[in-house]
Amino acid sequence: MLPDTAALLRRGVVLQHDNATPHSANLTQQWLQRYGWEILPHPAHSPDLAPSDFHLFGPLKRHLGGMAFETEDDLISELRNWFDNLDVDFFRVCINLLLTRWQKCIDLHGDYVEK
């Protein structure tokens, strides 16, 4: 039996996202409140605290480097394959790096964290 999606969405999710318009839109905020997600504050212009920027895009760029795709579907298929084959440690490392970067940001009173 498949798990109840709504129940899964309520299981202690902590979300970090920036203040981009789609993230701060009323509809988005209502959805997040509906499921009770905790939102970590994100200082403006801080890609150093965005896991996609400091941990995801580099390895993805290296993986895709030199590849050519005939169609958009070919690209999507390769992306799905890459994500499906990521080891759980990839995400564990990312979360640990995020904790370290947040502490540096706190120690620097919100200033930019390079590494």
Automatic annotation (TrEMBL):
InterPro entries: RNaseH_sf (IPR036397), Transposase-MT_Hybrid (IPR052709). The lineage of its organism: Eukaryota, Metazoa, Spiralia, Lophotrochozoa, Mollusca. GO terms for molecular function: nucleic acid binding. It comes from Plakobranchus ocellatus. This is Histone-lysine N-methyltransferase SETMAR.
